[in-house]
Amino acid sequence: MKNTVVTFQQAKERGEKLTMLTAYDYSTAKLEDEAGVNSILVGDSLGNVVLGYEDTISVTMEDMIHHGAAVARGAKNALVIIDMPFMSYQTSVYDAVVNAGRLMKEGRADAVKLEGGVEVCLQIRAIVDAGIPVCAHVGLTPQSINAFGGFKVQGKSEAAAKKVLEDARSVEEAGAFAVVLEGIPKKLGDLISRELRIPTIGIGAGNGCDGQVLVYQDLLGMFSDFTPKFVKRYAELGEIMKDAFRSYIEEVGSGAFPSEEHEYKIDDDIIEKLY
Ligand code: KIV
Fold first, then answer.
1. pTM of the prediction?
2. Does residue 115's CB lie within 6 angstroms of at least one atom of ligand 1?
3. How many angstroms is it from 194 CA to the middle of ligand 1?
4. pLDDT reported for residue 76
5. Maximum Cα–Cα distance for the chain, whole Å?
6. pLDDT in tens, 62-75
C-alpha cells in the first residue's frame, strides 16, 4: 500500500512506529521499498555520503532533482521526501514555493523537507498552501552548523529546550505533516512527540518519537568519515564490499576471472576464417 501523508497521520493516531531511510539512487530506493520502509528521504546528506563534501552547504537544487528523480523511479510504496537544499528556501517565501515546486515536478517527490522552526514558518505555510506536503526538521539542523559552531546536540539547557519545543509547535501550526527531530535529548524528544498531533521522526532523539530515520550508509556500515552516537550499524557492508573488490582485483590479476561461464561463444569455423 502506498504511504501518504494520510497514512502517516493514521500511524501516529494508532501508535504505530514509522520508518524512514535515506536513499540517493534507483537501486537502493528499490531495495528499501521492497523491504517495506514507510518513507524514503532523499536527504541533502547526499553532500556528505555521496558527493564527499564535509557538510551539506554546497548541495544544489540540481543535485537534489537528479538524485530525487532516480529515487522516485525506484520507490513504489514508500513516501518519497526530497530535502530542500541550503539557500533554496531561506531567501524568500517566493523562492521556497518555486523550489519546492521544482522538487515535485522535476524530482517527482511526494513531499519536501526543509530545516528550521519559527523562522521558516512563512515558507512552510506558503508551500503547504500550494498543495505541497512539508516535513519540517528541527533541533540539530545540519544546514546551520556554521551558526551552531559544529555538529552539537541541541536543546540541552532550559532556554535551548524551550526553543526546540517552540520550533516544533510552530512548524505543526504552519501546516507541516511531520517533523524530523535531530540531535536532541531523549526526554525532550518524548515530550515533543507526546505534545504534537503530527508524527515526529527521530534521529538522535530517542525511541519516544513516532518514527525513526537513519542515513542508509550509516546503518549498513558503508561510511566511516564520522559516525554519530545515534547510529546503529545493522551490517558491515563496507567490509564485505572491500573483500569483494579485493577478490575481483586478485582474480583479474591471476586470470581466474572471467572464466568459461562468463564467456560468449562463437563457432570455430568462423574464427578460422578470420586468420
Ligand atoms: O539529509 C538527511 O539525510 C537528513 C536526515 C539525517 C534526517 O536530513
1. 0.97
2. no
3. 22
4. 98
5. 86
6. 999 999 999 999 99
Task: For residue 85, give every residue at least 6 positions away whose Cβ sits within 8 Å of its Cβ, in sequence order, or none.
Answer: 44, 56, 59, 60, 61, 63, 64, 143
What residue owns the CA closest to ligand 1's atom 4? 43
Q: Does residue 23 carry a pLDDT above 90? A: yes
Q: Is 20 in the pocket of ligand 1 (CB under 6 A)?
A: no
- What's the 126 CA to ligand 1 centre distance in angstroms? 23
CA-nearest of 102, 99, 105 to 120 is: 99
What does the DSSP assignment read for 155-209? Answer: --SHHHHHHHHHHHHHHHHHT-SEEEEES--HHHHHHHHHH-SSPEEEESS-TTS
β pairing state of 39-42 and 18-22: parallel
Q: 77 with 29: CB under 8 angstroms? A: no
- The reply to whether ligand 1 has any atom less than 6 angstroms from the CB of 44 is yes
Ligand 1 lined by 22 (C-beta under 6 Å): yes
Q: What is the pLDDT of residues 209-247, one digit of tens each?
A: 999 999 999 999 999 998 899 999 999 999 999 999 999
pLDDT in tens, 183-198: 999 999 999 999 999 9
Q: Chain-wide mean pLDDT for the chain?
A: 97
Q: How far is the CA of 115 from the centre of ligand 1 (A)?
A: 10
